[in-house]
UniProtKB/TrEMBL annotation:
Protein name: SET domain-containing protein
SMART domains, A to Z: PostSET, SET
Chromo domain: residues covered: 31-94
Cited InterPro entries: Chromo-like_dom_sf, Chromo/chromo_shadow_dom, H3K9_Histone-Lys_N-MTase, Post-SET_dom, Pre-SET_dom, SET_dom, SET_dom_sf
Subunit structure as annotated in this protein's UniProt entry: Component of the NuA4 histone acetyltransferase complex.
Comp. bias regions, Acidic residues: 496-516
Gene3D superfamilies to which the protein is assigned, alphabetical: 2.40.50.40, SET domain
Compartment(s): Chromosome
Length: 532
């Protein structure tokens, strides 16, 4: 509660922030800030947000101060956290049962939300040891002046290393406010009628700036349901980030095809599968085996050995075919889920070989959009042809042990971001503990926003640029079928094949246990539960 009320607050001499002369306001450094607790529009019409500073000086009376968005430009993640908490608190009030008072949407409130809810039940706006009202007029007076706009409570503002910082202070001219009472009922009332539009616009602009920095066609962002934006805490990356205990195969193991050249007839790089060394471990096209080759292939499968020289297929349609097919997966790979081995920088086939595709990155126009019931989703702004490459799934590559720890800590919903790199586990004799896992929750690319469907229109494929590295490879999404522009892109989180679905077809079961995660895909053949 406020224990000292002053009509005007003047910080002690020497502690007022002095302009640096650069023409810009000093910023707050996020390392010094713990949380945003409230918002207001001041008398000048400027949006301001109440900052709770990290402080070891006083647990009950830590420094609190109001700042505009320019000052908070390095703390936008915290501003977004506050706005999300405020939005959820508002939805919670709308969806609350009048009998039980419980939230009906299953949302777990954040500390900021709990603070907002607790404070909203308080009947006291402010109080003082010396007065019970902010107004000097009698209760029945028709004039109701606004309370003073304090800049800071429990401290003073100064500079440190070019940034604004707050220091705890308890002198008589410093307003006091107990953290247990924040936000006060008066603050909540003010916040509920104060616009946050500028903050929402600034956050959205920052998201768009980060999206523009990604290679490839422009990624758009659309939200017609509310004012939220994807999390600023999500880090956009263009390749895997390898964490502790994760290692790529030595670069010396990456071999290229040495018998191919950029100009082998059609000027498309590799043209003969029997000569391309990159296809050494690629699947054999058994339909083209001669009787002698069938016998040889049977021996190789039983005893081991190289399949070089046996008929195989390049994974992509080459130039010279129909335009809509160029670069798309051929049916041999699209329907079989065989691993794809692309040529690499050590090959003699040239930069624009027909067998290089995913490594060049995304070439389609994507849009992240807010769905009506499943959070954010992903769609393409152009038609996608069957077998067309969309983008890869990226993130942190962690050990299986670390993945288990993260999943145990976060719960079953975490599984939707974890992708085990287990394609070669059986063929290479890798144990579960030897496998790596991609975690795309906190960093990755736009495919992080692809939702699940039990009848997906996209499918994920293994793409390797080093045939000798069976532990790290790309996960690439391709269109499973023709997908018209603006249709949501989905894939099966359980990575089931069509054959698996047909063999194991059964009626959806009732909830297996109380921790099961329901499926909301809405497909006709929905399995009803994602994680059980």
């Amino acid at each position: 509660m406020l224990t000292k009320l002053c009509p005007v607050f003047m910080p002690p001499t020497g502690m007022v922030i002095i302009p640096t002369g650069s023409g810009t306001e000093p910023r707050l450094k996020i390392e010094y800030v713990e949380q945003i607790l409230s918002n207001r529009v001041n008398n000048a019409g400027e949006e301001q947000y109440l900052v709770l500073w990290s402080s070891k000086s006083s647990a009950s009376f830590p420094p609190l101060s109001w700042h505009n968005l320019n000052e908070l430009s390095r703390c936008l993640e915290l501003v977004q956290d506050y706005l999300e908490a405020k939005l959820h608190a508002s939805l919670s009030r709308k969806r609350k049962s009048p009998d039980t008072g419980n939230d009906l949407d299953g949302h777990r409130p954040s500390p900021a939300e709990r603070r907002l809810k607790q404070a909203s039940r308080s009947s006291s706006v402010v109080s003082s040891s010396s007065t019970s009202s902010l107004s000097p007029h009698p209760p029945n007076h028709i004039t109701h002046p606004q309370p003073p706009e304090y800049k800071i409570y429990n401290g003073v503002l100064t500079h440190k290393g070019g940034y604004v910082v707050a220091k705890y202070a308890s002198s008589p001219d410093v307003p006091r406010l107990n953290i247990r009472d924040v936000p006060t009922a008066q603050m909540i009332s003010t916040a509920n009628r104060s616009s946050t539009r500028s903050a929402e616009d600034v956050i959205r602009a920052e998201i768009l700036r980060r999206l523009r920095a990604l290679p490839g066609p422009k990624i758009r962002l659309t939200n017609t349901f509310d004012s939220s934006s994807p999390s600023l805490r999500f880090q956009w990356i263009t390749e895997y980030v390898l964490r502790e205990g994760v290692f790529k195969a030595d670069a010396a193991t990456q071999e290229g095809c040495l018998k191919c050249s950029p100009h082998m007839g059609r000027n498309i790089g590799c043209e003969y599968t029997k000569r391309c060394d990159c296809l050494e471990y690629a699947a054999v096209d058994e339909n083209r085996l001669s009787p002698e080759q069938k016998e040889l292939y049977a021996i190789i499968r039983a005893e081991g050995g190289s399949t070089i020289g046996l008929p195989k297929k390049f994974p992509y349609y080459a130039e010279g075919t129909k335009e809509e097919k160029t670069g798309c997966l051929v049916p041999f790979y699209l329907k079989s889920r065989n691993p794809i081995y692309e040529c690499n920088d050590n090959c003699k086939c040239g930069r624009y070989c027909r067998n290089k595709n995913v490594q060049f990155g995304r070439r389609v126009q994507l849009e992240i959009f807010k769905t009506s019931s499943r959070g954010w989703g992903l769609r393409c702004r152009q038609d996608l042809h069957q077998g067309e490459f969309i983008d890869t799934y990226r993130g942190e590559v962690i050990t299986d042990e670390e993945a288990t720890r993260r999943e145990d800590s976060a719960g079953k919903s975490k599984a939707s971001y974890l992708y085990s790199l287990d394609k070669f586990a059986e063929s290479e004799g890798l144990s579960q503990e030897d496998l790596y896992v991609v975690d795309g929750e906190f960093m990755g690319g736009p495919t992080k926003y692809m939702n699940h469907s039990c009848e997906p229109n996209c499918r994920q494929y293994t793409v390797s640029y080093n045939k000798h590295d069976c532990k790290i490879y790309d996960i690439a999404f391709f269109a499973k079928e023709y997908i018209p522009a603006f249709e949501e892109l989905t894939f099966d989180y359980l990575d089931k094949d069509d054959d698996d679905e047909e063999d194991g077809a059964q009626e959806p079961e009732e909830q297996p246990d109380e921790d099961s995660v329901p499926c909301l895909c809405g497909a006709k053949k929905c399995r009803k539960w994602l994680w059980t």
